[in-house]
C-alpha cells in the first residue's frame, strides 16, 4: 500500500509523492518560547516525531526543520513582567522545551532555527514583496496585501467574507484592508529589542519568520508543512500567501494538521487557563505514558486529557515492558536454532498490518493495536516449553523496531541494566531472606520501589523492571 496523507489544502487523502524519490523536506512550526509548553502543544511534536521516524523507516532521507519563535509581543510582555530580557527569557524556555521533549522521546530536528537569527532573510523577503506589489509600508510598519493574491483563503477553505467576519484582526487605520497582516512592526516606545531595516527600527511579524526559514533550509517548495489545527488560519494561510508571492512557486505539497487537545468539554488553551504543562505532568507520570497517550488517537481527531487516561497508558506500558523483559530472560537460556517458519510468517503478517495502519494517513492508534498483537504473540512464545532462540530474537527485534524505533513506546531491555549499587541491594535482599531477616528484605524492596525499580520473585530467580 502507498502511504496516503490527508492534505488540508485539498481536504482529501492523497498518495504521498515527494518532490525527490529519496529525500523528504518537512517543516513543523515550533513553540513561541515565552512559557513552558502544555500537553496540547506536545501533541504536535510527539506525533510529527513519529511521522519523521516512519518516513525514515520507509527509506526516505528526511530533512526536518522545527523553529523557535523567540521574539514577539508575548515574549516582550513576559520579559517585562519577569524583569528580564527577551533573549534571556527565550533561552530559558528553549532549554525547558528540550528537557520536556527529551523526556517524551522526541528526537531533535535537523535544524532548530530561531527567528532572531534570521532577520536578514526576512528583510529580504519583505523587500521583495514590496517590489512585487504584494506589500506596502506605512510609517515604519509593513503589511501584506491579503487580497492581492486571488487564492487567499485556499488552505482554510473560507471565502473573503467568512475570513473577514471570523478573523481576529487588529483595528489598525494604517491597513488598506482588515485582512492585511504585519510583515514588519515598527518599534514601540519602551521596547528594547529591535533591528535596523529599510523601514526603520523594528522587528518581524509572526508569519514571515517561517517563510524565511523554510526558504533558507529547505527551498522554495517543500514536501510537508505541519502544525496544530489552530495554526491553519491565520498563520499557515498567511505563510502560503506571502511565500508563493515571494517565490512565484507552490509553498508546500502536503499540509498536515493535528486535532485539538480538550480538557473536559473545552479546548485546552492558555487563553482559557485550562492548560496542563508537560513539566508538571512528567513529575507525576511516566513520560512514555504521556507519549503513548498523545499517540493513542488518530492525529486529526480531538483527544481529551484525563488522569484516568494516563493511568491506562501506564498499564499498557507495563505490558510492553513485561513482554520484552520476559523475552530477554528467555533468550538467556534458549537453545540455539533458527526462527520457526510459522513465527516468521506471523511477524510478516504483523509487519503488513502495522504498515497498513501507518500508510492510512499515519494511524498511530491502529499501529499501537498491532503492537499489542505482537506483545500477545511474544507472551505465547515465552510460555512454550521449547522455543528456538531465533524465534525469540526475531520477535524481540520486531517489537523493538516497530514499538521502539518508530513509535518510541518500547524501551530496550538492555537499557534496564542494573547499576552496581542496585545489584548489591538485590543480592543483600536475597541474603536477608535466607537469614529470615524479612524486615530488612522488605525495606530493600521498598527502597528500590521508591527509586522506580520493581522486583518480581519467580521460580527462575528475582526479576526486576522499571516502573
Automatic annotation (TrEMBL):
Its EC number is 6.1.1.16. One of its GO terms (cellular component) is cytosol. GO terms for biological process: cysteinyl-tRNA aminoacylation. It is an enzyme of class 6 (ligase). A motif ('KMSKS' region) lies at residues 267-271. Signal peptide: none annotated. Residues 353-418 form the Cysteinyl-tRNA synthetase class Ia DALR domain. It catalyses: tRNA(Cys) + L-cysteine + ATP = L-cysteinyl-tRNA(Cys) + AMP + diphosphate. It comes from the Bacteria. Its cofactor is Zn(2+). Binds 1 zinc ion per subunit. Zn(2+) binds at residues 29, 210, 235, 239. The keyword ATP-binding applies. A motif ('HIGH' region) lies at residues 31-41. One of its GO terms (molecular function) is ATP binding. Keywords: Aminoacyl-tRNA synthetase, ATP-binding, Coiled coil, Cytoplasm, Ligase, Metal-binding, Nucleotide-binding, Protein biosynthesis, Zinc. Residues 415-442 form a coiled coil. HAMAP family: Cys_tRNA_synth (MF_00041). This is Cysteine--tRNA ligase. The lineage of its organism: Bacteria, Bacillati, Bacillota, Bacilli, Bacillales.
Amino acid at each position: 500500500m502507498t502511504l496516503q496523507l490527508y492534505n488540508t489544502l485539498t481536504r482529501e487523502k492523497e498518495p504521498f509523492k515527494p518532490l525527490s524519490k529519496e529525500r523528504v523536506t518537512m517543516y513543523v512550526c515550533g513553540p513561541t518560547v515565552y512559557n513552558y509548553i502544555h500537553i496540547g502543544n506536545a501533541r504536535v511534536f510527539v506525533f510529527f516525531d513519529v511521522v519523521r521516524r516512519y518516513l525514515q523507516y520507509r527509506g526516505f532521507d528526511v530533512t526536518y526543520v522545527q523553529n523557535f519563535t523567540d521574539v514577539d509581543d508575548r515574549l516582550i510582555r513576559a520579559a517585562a513582567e519577569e524583569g528580564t530580557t527577551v533573549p534571556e527569557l527565550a533561552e530559558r524556555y528553549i532549554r525547558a522545551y528540550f528537557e520536556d521533549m527529551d523526556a517524551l522521546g522526541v528526537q531533535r530536528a535537523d535544524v532548530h532555527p530561531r527567528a532572531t537569527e534570521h532577520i536578514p532573510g526576512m528583510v529580504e523577503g519583505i523587500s521583495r514583496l514590496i517590489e512585487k506589489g504584494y506589500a506596502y509600508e506605512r510609517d515604519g510598519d509593513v503589511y501584506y496585501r491579503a487580497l492581492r493574491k486571488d487564492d487567499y483563503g485556499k488552505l482554510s477553505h473560507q471565502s473573503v467574507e467568512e475570513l473577514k467576519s471570523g478573523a481576529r484582526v487588529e483595528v489598525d487605520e494604517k491597513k488598506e484592508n482588515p485582512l492585511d497582516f504585519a510583515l514588519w512592526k515598527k518599534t514601540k516606545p519602551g521596547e528594547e529589542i529591535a533591528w535596523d531595516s529599510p523601514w526603520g527600527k523594528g522587528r518581524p511579524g509572526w508569519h514571515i519568520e517561517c517563510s524565511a526559514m523554510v526558504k533558507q533550509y529547505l527551498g522554495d517548495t517543500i514536501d510537508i508543512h505541519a502544525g496544530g489545527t489552530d495554526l491553519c488560519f491565520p498563520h499557515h494561510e498567511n505563510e502560503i500567501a506571502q511565500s508563493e508571492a515571494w517565490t512565484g512557486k507552490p509553498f508546500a505539497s502536503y499540509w498536515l494538521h493535528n486535532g485539538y487537545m480538550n480538557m473536559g468539554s473545552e479546548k485546552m488553551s492558555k487563553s482559557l487557563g485550562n492548560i496542563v504543562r508537560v513539566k508538571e505532568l512528567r513529575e507525576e507520570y511516566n513520560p512514555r505514558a504521556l507519549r503513548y497517550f498523545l499517540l493513542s488517537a488518530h492525529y486529526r481527531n480531538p483527544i481529551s486529557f484525563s488522569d484516568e487516561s494516563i493511568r491506562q497508558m501506564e498499564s499498557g506500558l507495563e505490558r510492553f515492558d513485561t513482554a520484552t523483559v520476559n523475552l530477554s530472560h528467555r533468550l538467556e537460556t534458549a537453545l540455539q536454532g533458527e526462527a520457526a517458519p510459522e513465527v516468521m510468517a506471523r511477524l510478516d503478517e504483523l509487519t503488513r498490518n502495522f504498515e497498513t495502519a501507518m500508510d492510512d494517513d499515519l494511524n498511530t492508534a491502529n499501529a499501537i493495536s498491532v503492537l499489542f498483537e505482537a506483545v500477545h504473540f511474544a507472551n505465547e512464545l515465552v510460555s512454550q516449553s521449547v522455543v528456538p532462540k531465533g524465534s525469540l530474537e526475531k520477535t524481540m527485534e520486531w517489537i523493538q523496531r516497530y514499538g521502539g524505533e518508530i513509535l518510541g513506546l518500547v524501551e530496550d531491555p538492555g537499557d534496564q541494566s542494573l547499576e552496581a549499587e542496585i545489584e548489591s541491594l538485590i543480592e543483600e535482599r536475597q541474603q536477608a531472606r535466607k537469614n529470615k531477616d524479612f524486615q530488612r528484605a522488605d525495606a530493600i524492596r521498598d527502597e528500590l520501589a521508591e527509586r522506580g525499580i520493581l522486583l518480581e520473585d519467580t521460580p527462575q530467580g528475582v526479576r526486576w523492571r522499571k516502573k
